[in-house]
Q: What sequence folds into this?
């Protein structure tokens, strides 16, 4: 495999692409897509596969794919998943990653965005779930609350997030606590319903069900 997760985190090209992508998205008004998001998604995706009993190699591959999944934002937000997969392919090929492992990683990156993608294997499935469930207040950038758009309000309204993977029940549950004084349930579902349905389909590929709980009530 040669290039592992720890190497990716230290790779200057990867770090520069994440930084530039996050800078671009900040100017365009998007929430945080920094190395904090990349690392959180990588660790969460790995945890999903580990708890469900997948092999160490699959866990390592999903961490690599997850950490690199948003590097395409350095080129453009539109089609960033596809751009990111091409960038990742060049980086991993130059690093000497095994061809099949490399293709698994770049395919997962290419399929992680809800506008054009969908889960095609366990790596992409875990990446999708980990990415789409990263909803939290501190993803909102530092700016006056009066300037918040609906995406900012939805993320800022989330006061607590727990992703629970239960192997015995064959179930993944996203528990959210939302301050409805900041964001209505309608606004939340207007933004996130498509992403949650994507998580449901990805979970099915992993052989489990996906459940969304909001303020203690089952929402999906």
A:
């Amino acid at each position: 495999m040669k290039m592992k997760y720890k190497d990716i985190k230290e790779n200057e090209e990867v770090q520069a692409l994440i930084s530039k992508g996050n800078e671009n998205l900040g100017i365009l008004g998007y929430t945080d897509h920094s190395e904090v998001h990349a690392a959180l998604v990588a660790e969460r995706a790995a945890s999903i596969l580990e708890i469900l009993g997948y092999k160490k190699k699959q866990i390592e591959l999903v961490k690599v794919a997850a950490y690199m999944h948003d590097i395409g934002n350095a080129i453009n937000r539109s089609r960033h998943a596809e751009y990111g997969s091409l960038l990742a392919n060049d980086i991993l090929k130059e690093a000497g990653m095994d061809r099949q492992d490399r293709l698994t990683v770049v395919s997962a990156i290419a399929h992680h965005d809800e506008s054009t993608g969908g889960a095609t294997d366990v790596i992409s499935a875990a990446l999708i779930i980990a990415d789409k469930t990263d909803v939290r207040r501190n993803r909102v950038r530092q700016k006056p609350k009066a300037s918040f758009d609906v995406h900012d309000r939805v993320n800022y309204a989330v006061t607590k997030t727990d992703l629970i993977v239960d192997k015995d029940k064959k179930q993944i549950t996203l528990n959210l606590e939302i301050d409805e004084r900041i964001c209505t349930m309608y606004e939340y579902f207007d933004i996130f319903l498509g992403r949650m349905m994507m998580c449901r389909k990805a979970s099915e590929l992993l052989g489990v069900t996906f459940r969304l709980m909001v303020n203690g009530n089952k929402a999906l």
Q: What stands out?
A: Residues 185-205 form the longest helix (21 residues). The radius of gyration is 17 Å.
